[in-house]
Write a structure and sequence with these properties.
alpha/beta; Polyamine Oxidase, Chain A, domain 2; 3 domains; eight-stranded mixed sheet; six-stranded mixed sheet; about 35% helix; flavin adenine dinucleotide binding; FAD/NAD-bd_sf; Amino_oxidase domain-containing protein
C-alpha cells in the first residue's frame, strides 16, 4: 500500500489531457505530481491493438483539422515523431451508397439527396437557434425528417460524422478541413509516450517513473479548503493540495467516483446536460478483398431502413495495403445494442449486410474485433457531444473548478470538444489555471508574513533592520516552492 505522503497535485487519468496537464506543471517546476490511472496503460480513449497483422486504433483514429492557417498542435506532435498517417477523403463517400440489392445509387440521386439533407439540417439549426434556445428536444419536432434508406444513410454521415457543411466546426475553421488517419505500428498513443518521457523517467521505451501509478481506480475524492484526499479501489490513500480530474464525461455521469462533500448542483446539472457519444469501429479480417479499391473508394455506405445499421464502411488498403481489413462504424443506440450481444451475432449481422452489397459468394471474415467503450467503466462512451445551442454556460460550468478540484478533458474544451487536440489543449489550459491559483495562494501567504514579523521584531528589542528590509530578506531566502506546496514546510517554520 502506498503511504499517504502529500504531493502538490494529483492527476486522475492518464489520457491526452492528463498527460499534457502533467507536462506543463513539470515545465513550471511542479514535479511532485502523482498520476493515477485506472487501467494498465496510458492513453485513455487513444488505444491501439494488433489485429490481422497490423496495428489498428480502437478509439481516436484521425488527426482532424489539418491544412489551415493555424497549425493543429497534435499534427505538430505527429510530425515531430514522424508518425505515419494517410489522408482520408470523405468527399466521394456519398457517391458510393449501396442499396439492399447491391446496386449503387446513381450519382445524381445521391447528390440531390445530399443537398436536400444539408439544406434541411441548416434550416433545423436556424429554427433551433431562433425558437428553442434552451430546449433541444424541439429539434425532433421539426419537419423534413429523413425517411427513405438513402435519406437515413446521408443523415447518418452528416450528423454522426460532423460534416462541416452543416455547421461551422471550430476545428475545421481554425486548423483546416483535412483529416489524416493514423496508420503507424507504434500507434496514436506513441505521441502520449513522447510527451510523458519529457518529464517522467523511462527505460527502453517504457515509463518506469513511480509518479505514474497504473491500475489505480479512484473511487472517492474528499476535498476541503486545506487539500484533497483520494482513495482508490485497492485501499490506497493519496493526499495533495490540488486535484486535476481528467476522467471522461461518461465517467463523471456515472457513480464510479464519489465526492465528499458532493459536487454543487450547478456542477452536476452541467455534467448531466452533456451528451455522451458512443462511437464503435468494428474491424473485420478477410482472406482476400472483394470490395472496390482505388481513388475515391476508401469509404462506402449501406442504405438501410434502420438509421445507422452498419451504415458507414471503410477499407484499410490505403493505410495497410494487403491487410484485407474492413471497418464498419456504429454509433450510440446501435453501438450499445452491439456491445450487449456476442461477437458471433455481430459478425453474422455484418456479413449479411456485406452480402447484400457485394453478393452471396464473398468469403467469410476470419476474425472480428468489437470495442466496447460504453461498457468500459473507465470510459463510459467515446466523446462528449454538446447540444447545438447558443448557451455555452454548461461547458463553462463543467470546466469551472470546485474548490481544489480542477476539471479537464476534451469535454471542457468549448471550441474543440470531442477531438484529441481538444483534450490536449484542455490539459494545458487547466494546468495554467491551476498555476495561477497556486501563484495567488503563495502571494497571499507571503503578504500574511508581514503580520507575523511584527511581533517577532518587537520581541528582539532591536530595530537595526526595518520591517521592509526584513520582509525583503525573507524573499531573498527563496523558500522552495515545492516544500510549501507539499505541506512539508510552512511559512512560519521558514521564518523561525
Amino acid at each position: 500500500m502506498d503511504s499517504p505522503s502529500r504531493s502538490s497535485v494529483i492527476i486522475i487519468g492518464a489520457g491526452v489531457s492528463g498527460i499534457s496537464a502533467a507536462r506543463l506543471l513539470a515545465e513550471n517546476g511542479i514535479e511532485d505530481v502523482v498520476i493515477l490511472e485506472a487501467s494498465d496503460r496510458i492513453g485513455g480513449r487513444i488505444r491501439k491493438e494488433s489485429f490481422g497483422g497490423v496495428s489498428i486504433e480502437l478509439g481516436a483514429g484521425w488527426i482532424a483539422g489539418v491544412g489551415g492557417k493555424e497549425s493543429n498542435p497534435v499534427w505538430e506532435l505527429a510530425s515531430q515523431s514522424s508518425l505515419r498517417t494517410c489522408f482520408s477523403d470523405y468527399s466521394n463517400a456519398r457517391f458510393n451508397i449501396y442499396d439492399k440489392s447491391g446496386k449503387i445509387f446513381p450519382s445524381g440521386i445521391a447528390a440531390d439527396s445530399y443537398k436536400k439533407a444539408v439544406d434541411s439540417a441548416i434550416q433545423k439549426l436556424k429554427r433551433l437557434d431562433q425558437n428553442c434556445f434552451n430546449d433541444v428536444t424541439k429539434l425532433t419536432e421539426l419537419p423534413c425528417s429523413p425517411k427513405t434508406p438513402i435519406e437515413l444513410a446521408i443523415d447518418f454521415i452528416l450528423h454522426d460524422f460532423e460534416m462541416a457543411e452543416v455547421e461551422p466546426i471550430s476545428t475545421y475553421v481554425d486548423f483546416g478541413e483535412r483529416e489524416f488517419l493514423v496508420a503507424d505500428e507504434r500507434g496514436y498513443e506513441f505521441l502520449l509516450y513522447k510527451m510523458a518521457e519529457s518529464f517522467l523517467f523511462t527505460s527502453e521505451g517504457k515509463i518506469v517513473d513511480s509518479r505514474l501509478k497504473l491500475n489505480k481506480v479512484v473511487r472517492e475524492l474528499q476535498h476541503s479548503r486545506n487539500g484533497v484526499t483520494v482513495k482508490t479501489e485497492d485501499g490506497c490513500v493519496y493526499e495533495a493540495n490540488y486535484v486535476i480530474l481528467s476522467a471522461s464525461i461518461g465517467v463523471l455521469q456515472s457513480d464510479l467516483i464519489s465526492f465528499k462533500p458532493p459536487l454543487p448542483r450547478w456542477k452536476t446539472d452541467a455534467i448531466e446536460q452533456c451528451d455522451v457519444m458512443v462511437y464503435t469501429k468494428i474491424f473485420l479480417k478477410f482472406p482476400c478483398n472483394f470490395w472496390p479499391c482505388g481513388p475515391g473508394k476508401e469509404f462506402f455506405i449501406y442504405a438501410h431502413e434502420r438509421r445507422g445499421y452498419y451504415t458507414f464502411w471503410q477499407h484499410m488498403e490505403n493505410a495497410y495495403p494487403g491487410s484485407n481489413i474492413l471497418v464498419v462504424t456504429l454509433t450510440n443506440g446501435e453501438s450499445k445494442r452491439v456491445e450487449a450481444q456476442s461477437d458471433k451475432e455481430t459478425l453474422k449481422e455484418a456479413m449479411e449486410v456485406l452480402r447484400n452489397m457485394f453478393g452471396p459468394n464473398i468469403p467469410n471474415a476470419t476474425d472480428i474485433l468489437v470495442p466496447r467503450w460504453w461498457n468500459n467503466r473507465f470510459q463510459r462512451g467515446s466523446y462528449s457531444n454538446y447540444p447545438i445551442i447558443s448557451n455555452y454556460q454548461p461547458i463553462q460550468n463543467i470546466k469551472a473548478p470546485v474548490g481544489r478540484i480542477f476539471f479537464t478533458g476534451e469535454h471542457t474544451s468549448e471550441r474543440f470538444n470531442g477531438y484529441v487536440h481538444g483534450g490536449y489543449l484542455a490539459g494545458i489550459d487547466t494546468s495554467k489555471a491551476l498555476l495561477e491559483e497556486i501563484r495567488k495562494e503563495l502571494e497571499i501567504s507571503s503578504e500574511s508574513q508581514t503580520f507575523l514579523l511584527e511581533p517577532l521584531l518587537a520581541l528582539t528589542g532591536s530595530l537595526t533592520l526595518t520591517q521592509t528590509e526584513a520582509v525583503s530578506n525573507l524573499h531573498k531566502c527563496e523558500i522552495p516552492t515545492q516544500l510549501y506546496l507539499s505541506g512539508k514546510l510552512s511559512i512560519p517554520e521558514a521564518i523561525l
